[in-house]
Amino acid sequence: GPEICCRRKDGSTFWAGIYISPVRDDSGDIVQHFASFGDLTRHKEEQARSGTLIDELNDRVRNMLAAVQSIVSQAFRRGADPAATRDFIASRIAALSRSHALLAHGDWGRAGLRDIVDEALKPLTVDDGRSGRYVVTGDDIRLPPKRALALGIALHELVLNAVIHGALSNDAGSILVSWTIEPKTTGDRLILVWREKDGPSVASSSKKGFGSRVIEDGLAHELE
User: Fold this and answer.
1) What whole-number distance in Å separates Cα of residue 172 and Cα of residue 14?
2) How far apart are the C-alpha atoms of 144 and 222, rounded to whole Å?
3) Helix %, strand %, coil % for the chain, to 5?
């Protein structure tokens, strides 16, 4: 039957499915109809969650493929012999795969912030042959697993974005990551700065992508 949005007496709404069945007498004539309502609220919520997960998965796959495409483009711009080009591509994709698997499985112990940053950046800068593609500045800070994973995922998205659109999409750009501790009466505050330098100019977009949601919503929630 049809699905409609209903309103309760208290003003709250819920989705319901309407099912109408005819009631016949002994001669087969319809004498009345029996109508029932089925609450579909949970079903609708699960549908919405599934749709969001599918959108995020598609977005992540597109980003990963774009990163691989960028790696291949960088390899051929180097003008090296075929064997060196193959090794350049293979080492980067292998590192990117290891980093992604680490994040996907949440295999972080209590980790140092410097290791987390290096782990996120390494896949796209390993065996680069150029110094200064990224510089990390800050005293090492130990983070519990949940926060280390959340920060690692956010940094992973920033790196992918840098490879596709930003400082790692050309041969001149670099990334500067730094952090300081700001003492507060309620507890020390970590100030972390991600800065991209000498990359191409990027037009702002009104659409919020998966990476933006990870950083602005997910990371904010996980780090409180």
Assistant:
1) 55
2) 11
3) 50, 25, 30
- Report pLDDT digits (tens) over 59-96: 767 767 776 776 677 677 666 678 877 876 776 677 66
Q: Model-level pTM greater than 0.85?
A: no
- Between CA 122 and CA 105 the distance in angstroms is 18
Alpha carbons 16 and 41: distance in angstroms, whole number: 7
Residue 130 has pLDDT above 50, yes or no: no
Closest CA to 75 of 64, 65, 89, 63: 89
Do the Cβ atoms of 45 and 15 come closer than 8 Å?
no
Is residue 199 within 8 Å of residue 157, measured between CB atoms?
Answer: no
Q: With contact defined as beta carbons under 8 Å apart, do 14 and 4 qualify?
A: no
